[in-house]
Amino acid sequence: MLATIDVGVPGDGGDPCIADGYVWVSAEGVALTQIDPSTNKVLRQYVGGRKDDTLRVGFGAACVVDEDNGEIWKIDVSRLAR
């Protein structure tokens, strides 16, 4: 099944990831978006950075590369607002 899900993130780039039963997306200005694949709905987002890319999720955390600052952010997914 194919679905198009609007996550409200304009621009190019980004990185999708499938982990812990969810689809995760990192893109410019929105470092982390969690999508429930059973409903195709955005569950939570973490907004920050300008050029976010390269995403990995596991063990309760998401690691996102902030290309502008040369940093790797570790985001505790349990602390994201719903």
Would you write up a description of this structure?
It is built from no helices and seven strands. It is mainly beta. The protein has a single domain, classed as Thrombin, subunit H. The strands form two sheets. A four-stranded antiparallel beta sheet has the order 1-2-3-4, with no helix packed on it. The model has no long low-confidence stretch (mean pLDDT 86).
Show the helix and strand layout.
Blueprint lengths: L14 E5 L2 E6 L2 E7 L4 E6 L5 E7 L2 E6 L4 E6 L6
Antiparallel strand pairs: 1-2, 2-3, 3-4, 5-6, 6-7
- CATH architectural arrangement: Beta Barrel
Q: Could you tell me the mean pLDDT?
A: 86
Number of helices, counting only DSSP H or I runs of 4 residues or more: 0
Structural class: mainly beta
Taking the sheet with the most strands, its summary is: 4 strands, antiparallel
Q: Share of helix among residues?
A: under 10%
List descriptors.
single chain, 82 residues, mainly beta, Thrombin, subunit H, 4-stranded antiparallel beta sheet, 7 strands, 0% helix, globular
Brief summary of the model shown:
By secondary structure, the chain is an all-beta fold. It has strands spanning 15-19, 22-27, 30-36, 41-46, 52-58, 61-66, 71-76.
